[in-house]
Automatic annotation (TrEMBL):
EC number(s) per entry: 2.7.13.3
Organism: Natronincola ferrireducens
One CC-aspect GO term: membrane
Name recorded for this polypeptide: histidine kinase
Xref: InterPro entries: DegS, HATPase_C_sf, HATPase_dom, His_kinase_dom, Sensor_HK_TwoCompSys, Sig_transdc_His_kin_sub3_dim/P, Sig_transdc_His_kinase_DegS
Length: 378
């Protein structure tokens, strides 16, 4: 499966978990509001029930008294008139009706109170469950989030390695093509020339001995040139002196040659030097400086270059500073790989492979400064 697709799937899972969580939080919030509302209703009903009970108690006493009064009045015909009896009767009757009504109300309120109590209990239970669910989602989110991030990082890593691998293969192919071209244009051509020159000598031998001696001189010169060419190619493949005398003397020799060929003066200073045993690192550092100087030669139009190397026990820091015309680094980075220019890219890849750090600072007409930091330990 495509890595980008996997990443999409992971992001979707995380988003959908996040959405579910926010839905559950909404539900929690609603239930919490309902609980508050139900609690308020309950308080007010309790208040009502309380007052009603008081009222019913009062009415019960009043009604009892009114019945007593009615009994008294209706027994004593002498003392009380028909009017009094009716009055007492009506009062008792009214109180009884009031009492029945209030009792009825009391019953209804108690019923509603019970109902609300049941609803409140069930809402509280649901709230507890929902809150439980959010904390579970939190755990899932944390767990998955962490793991998915790990997986995401690993996939990113694989992707980067994949890209890097392809670039390395590409760079290797480039290097091979360059070597093939060098051999084709140099030694192969010289050797073909040598065969022709040898044939000419062979023919001249019997005819003109002086001329043939001249041709042999020419032949020797040609052979020396070819040896020089071959040495150059070998040196470019891997400077032997790196293994024999180490990085710093190899660089010194290279720099001397560079100065002689270009008339650019190089100020080479080694600030501290703890010998570097690692041959891969030595070669990489050599190549980085070689590429930086090649760029100075090709593009910078510089007068002087400062090279500083600090090799301590922890890391190796290299500064290459030229006083040339400078360039737009961001633009050059974007154009990497186009027009067959891989120099800066190769530099970056070499540094990356050694877990190091490469900084290129350049301003138009202000020169270029390249800083490389490579840890000694991998
Ligand atoms: N020291 C420098 N001074 C000025 N321009 C530079 C320097 N180094 C690099 N550049 C610019 O950056 C571009 C990319 O460099 P590089 O990747 O080495 O490719 P190439 O050297 O093959 O052109 C160069 O074409 C040049 O324009
Ligand atoms: Mg270059």
């Amino acid at each position: 499966m495509d890595i980008t697709k996997l990443n999409e799937v992971f992001s979707k899972i995380l988003i959908s978990i996040e959405e579910s969580k926010s839905e559950v939080l909404d539900i929690c919030e609603n239930i919490r509001k309902e609980c508050i509302d139900l609690n308020m209703q309950l308080e007010s009903i309790k208040d009502n029930v309380h007052q009603l009970i008081k009222k019913v108690d009062e009415l019960e006493i009043l009604e009892k008294n009114s019945r007593k009064e009615l009994l008294k009045v209706s027994r004593d015909f002498v003392k009380y008139k028909e009017e009094d009896i009716r009055e007492a009767y009506e009062k008792a009757n009214m109180l009884q009706i009031q009492l029945i009504t209030k009792r009825q109300q009391e019953k209804e309120f108690i019923k509603r109170r019970t109902e609300i109590e049941v609803r409140l209990k069930s809402a509280e239970k649901t709230l507890e469950k929902a809150e439980n669910l959010t904390s579970k989602i939190d755990i899932v989110q944390e767990f998955l989030g962490g793991n998915l991030q790990d997986i995401h990082n690993t996939l990113e890593d694989i992707k980067q390695r994949h890209i890097l691998g392809r670039k390395i293969i590409h760079a290797q192919e480039e290097e091979r093509r360059r070597v093939a071209r060098d051999i084709h244009d140099g030694p192969a051509q010289s050797l073909a020339n040598l065969v022709i020159k040898a044939e000419v000598c062979e023919k001249l031998m019997g005819v003109d001995i002086d001329k043939s001696k001249e041709e042999i001189q020419e032949l020797k010169k040609c052979i020396r040139e070819s040896i020089k060419d071959i040495r150059k190619i070998i040196y470019n493949l891997r400077p032997m002196s790196l293994d024999d005398v180490g990085l710093v003397p190899t660089l010194q020799r290279y720099i001397e040659k560079f100065q002689a060929e270009t008339s650019i003066s190089i100020d080479f200073i080694i600030l501290s030097q703890v010998a570097l045993e690692d041959s891969v690192k030595s070669l990489s550092i050599f190549r980085i400086i070689q590429e930086a100087l090649n760029n100075v030669r090709k593009h910078a139009r510089a007068h002087t270059v400062k090279i500083r190397i600090e090799m301590n026990t922890k890391n190796i820091c290299i500064n290459i500073i030229d006083d040339g015309i400078g360039f737009d680094v961001e633009k050059a980075k974007l154009q990497q790989g186009e027009y067959d220019s891989f120099g800066l890219l190769n530099m970056k890849e070499r540094v990356d492979l050694l877990n190091g750090d490469l900084q290129i600072k350049s301003e138009i007409n202000e020169g270029t400064k390249i800083t490389v930091n490579i840890p000694r330990e991998d």
